[in-house]
């Protein structure tokens, strides 16, 4: 199982990544304030520490073809060979591309294209795009991509069902499931509402209340992870691993992941 940890494009992310005792798979988000240029700059420094890094690039923040050329050249020079391409929320778009599906063919054909291109999946939909359109666009993008990472979700069954429907449509790319890291509860709820995972929040409230399910002060991935655990070996689902939205709680999330993997290995060995 792959474990991938998302960090913010900040100086603190580099300091946190330097504390990790071994190289890991990290991704750097695309900040609305700094844009993809800062993400690439942080990714360069993370790569220099020995980590394998993916850069989030928001299509709506690419100003022009020359800007795209600069970003891809900087990634190649830094040894960053993985781009996670999303549409982004910049309104209006800063350049000629308004969505990932528009920019993806341009990146794919670029002479300095990264070896890996990831795309986003939305188990709970998108606040501005209907589900059928999302599914059709995902099919189109999947022909030019290497993997899918899902949006943050708190409902393991919703993720499983969405993956099953996606497979039925013929999309076979490896799937990284987006889970919350070990994060302060209030911060996670605030960020979740911003990025459009309201259905999961409503689901938690309906079950037993946010405080009881998420804990009094912090959240762990245990609940969603445990719901998905029985399906991890299902070849029809093709779950390649987990993408942790750490919100820069990197070390706490990494320690949780190590312990979880250790316990899972011991349990498997005793069966």
Walk me through this protein's architecture:
46% of the residues lie in helices and 18% in strands. The model is unreliable at 194-214 (pLDDT under 50). It has one domain (2-270): TIM Barrel (Alpha-Beta Barrel). It has eleven helices and ten strands. With 271 residues, it is an alpha/beta fold. The two termini are 19 Å apart. Helix 6 packs across helix 10 (222-228). The protein has an eight-stranded parallel beta barrel with strand order 1-2-3-4-5-6-7-10, surrounded by four helices. A two-stranded antiparallel ribbon has the order 8-9. The protein is globular.
Keywords:
271 residues; alpha/beta; TIM Barrel; two-stranded antiparallel ribbon
What is the element layout, followed by pairings?
Layout lengths: L1 E6 L3 H9 L5 E4 L6 H14 L3 E7 L6 H14 L3 E5 L13 H9 L7 E6 L9 H12 L4 E4 L5 H13 L6 E6 L2 E2 H10 L3 H10 L2 H5 L3 E2 L2 H7 L10 E7 L4 H21 L1
Parallel strand pairs: 1-2, 1-10, 2-3, 3-4, 4-5, 5-6, 6-7, 7-10
Antiparallel strand pairs: 8-9
Helix pairs in contact: 2-3, 6-10
């Amino acid at each position: 199982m792959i474990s991938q940890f998302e960090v913010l494009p900040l100086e603190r992310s580099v300091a946190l990544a330097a504390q990790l005792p071994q190289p890991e798979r990290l991704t750097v988000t695309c900040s609305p304030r700094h844009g993809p240029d800062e993400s690439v700059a942080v990714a360069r420094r993370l790569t220099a520490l020995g980590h394998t890094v993916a850069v989030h690039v928001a299509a709506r923040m690419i100003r022009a073809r020359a800007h795209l050329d600069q970003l891809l050249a900087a990634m190649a020079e830094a040894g960053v060979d993985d781009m996670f391409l999303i549409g982004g929320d910049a309104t209006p778009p800063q350049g000629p591309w308004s969505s990932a599906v528009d920019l993806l063919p341009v990146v794919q054909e670029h002479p300095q294209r990264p070896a890996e291109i990831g795309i986003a999946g939305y188990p709970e939909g998108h606040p501005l795009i209907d589900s059928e359109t999302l599914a059709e666009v995902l099919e189109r993008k999947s022909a030019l991509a290497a993997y899918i990472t899902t949006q943050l979700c708190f409902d393991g069954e919703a993720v499983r069902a969405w993956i099953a429907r996606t497979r039925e449509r013929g999309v076979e790319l490896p799937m990284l499931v987006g889970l919350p890291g070990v994060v302060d509860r209030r911060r996670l709820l605030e960020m979740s509402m911003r990025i459009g995972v309201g259905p999961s929040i409503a689901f938690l409230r309906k079950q037993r209340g946010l405080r009881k399910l998420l804990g009094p002060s912090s959240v762990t991935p245990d609940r969603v992870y445990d719901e998905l655990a029985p399906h991890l070996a299902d070849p029809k689902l093709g779950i390649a691993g987990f993408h942790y939205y750490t919100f820069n709680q990197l070390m706490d999330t990494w320690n949780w992941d190590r312990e979880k993997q250790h316990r899972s290995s011991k349990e498997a060995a005793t069966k």
